[in-house]
TrEMBL record:
<comment type="subunit">
    <text>Homodimer.</text>
</comment>
<dbReference type="Pfam" id="PF03744">
    <property type="entry name" value="BioW"/>
</dbReference>
<comment type="similarity">
    <text>Belongs to the BioW family.</text>
</comment>
<dbReference type="GO" id="GO:0042410">
    <property type="term" value="F:6-carboxyhexanoate-CoA ligase activity"/>
</dbReference>
<dbReference type="GO" id="GO:0005524">
    <property type="term" value="F:ATP binding"/>
</dbReference>
<keyword id="KW-0547">Nucleotide-binding</keyword>
<dbReference type="InterPro" id="IPR005499">
    <property type="entry name" value="BioW"/>
</dbReference>
<dbReference type="GO" id="GO:0000287">
    <property type="term" value="F:magnesium ion binding"/>
</dbReference>
<protein>
    <recommendedName>
        <fullName>6-carboxyhexanoate--CoA ligase</fullName>
        <ecNumber>6.2.1.14</ecNumber>
    </recommendedName>
</protein>
<comment type="function">
    <text>Catalyzes the transformation of pimelate into pimeloyl-CoA with concomitant hydrolysis of ATP to AMP.</text>
</comment>
<keyword id="KW-0460">Magnesium</keyword>
<comment type="pathway">
    <text>Metabolic intermediate metabolism; pimeloyl-CoA biosynthesis; pimeloyl-CoA from pimelate: step 1/1.</text>
</comment>
<dbReference type="GO" id="GO:0009102">
    <property type="term" value="P:biotin biosynthetic process"/>
</dbReference>
<keyword id="KW-0436">Ligase</keyword>
<keyword id="KW-0067">ATP-binding</keyword>
<keyword id="KW-0093">Biotin biosynthesis</keyword>
Length: 261
């Protein structure tokens, strides 16, 4: 039986003009949808863009395109929550986790310097784990990870099994972290949101899983961070193509089918 065709549905919203005209980034999102569910996907992204805490947009673009390439299914990263009392403690923990993932302290320090210099960047910074230098040439645009999702029914089964909240924000972050860490060139990811009302972030890698940290910035701060630490000396173009173009569908399967309910 032939698999139903999927479409990548994407949204981006800005204030004071489009992103290309220097507008302030408000919101973005993506859903993998079948054609029959297209209206629901578009409406969900429209609602997200119109109700973001960063402000009311005056520019929004929603588009979809058919996915003709094979879709790779991957298991979600294991998730662990780290409750911390302050941003200082959270940031110190993020450094320790990155070092545990195999990144040297001086490389992390250089990465933070690049992040400070590029505070308005919309996508991710790609940082070379050997030199600490930025690898991509996207300037303020950065690299945007795309073509990924987790079907709600499967996500909710996962959340029920592990007694996790059915939180859309956690779902989206875990999907992105899973796709990024799936590539062998990714050593680790550091992220926190540009949403001024959301101060939780994470460190993620194949080795560590998804390490959620409850405080990585101060409440009200609109500066976000997304850094990919990359060991990719040969084919950077292939790595960026994977992040932007190859389609990943996160799919969880219960580890123990004989579990007693």
């Amino acid at each position: 039986m032939q698999e139903e065709k999927y479409y990548s549905v994407r949204m981006r919203a800005a204030k004071n003009g489009s992103h290309e005209q220097g507008g302030k980034h408000i919101s973005g999102g993506e859903i993998l949808s079948t054609f029959s569910d297209m209206r629901h996907a578009v409406n969900a992204l429209l609602e997200k863009g119109l109700t973001h805490s960063r402000g009311k947009p005056d520019f929004m673009q929603i588009q979809f395109e058919a996915i003709d390439e094979p879709i790779k299914r991957v298991k979600p990263l294991q998730i662990e929550s780290n409750e911390v009392e302050s941003v200082e403690i959270g940031q110190a923990l993020s450094w320790r986790l990155l070092e545990k993932a195999g990144i040297q302290e001086q490389i992390i320090e250089k990465a933070y310097k690049h992040m400070t210099e590029c505070s308005g960047i919309r996508g991710a910074l790609l940082i070379d784990v050997h030199s600490g230098e930025r690898m991509d040439d996207r300037k303020e645009k950065g690299v945007r990870v795309s073509r990924m999702d987790w079907l709600n029914t499967n996500f909710e089964k996962w959340a029920d099994y592990y007694n996790n909240p059915k939180n859309l924000r956690v779902k989206e972050a875990l999907v992105l972290a899973t796709k990024v860490s799936e590539h062998p060139a990714t050593v680790a990811e550091l992220c926190w949101s540009d949403d001024p009302e959301y101060i939780t972030g994470y460190v993620a890698s194949k080795k560590l899983g998804y390490q959620r940290i409850t405080k990585l910035k101060e409440y009200g701060d609109e500066r976000g961070c997304r850094i990919f630490f990359v060991d990719c000396l040969e084919d950077l173009k292939e790595y960026i193509h994977y992040l932007e173009k190859e389609t990943i569908l996160v799919q969880w399967e219960e580890e123990d089918d004989k579990r007693i309910n």
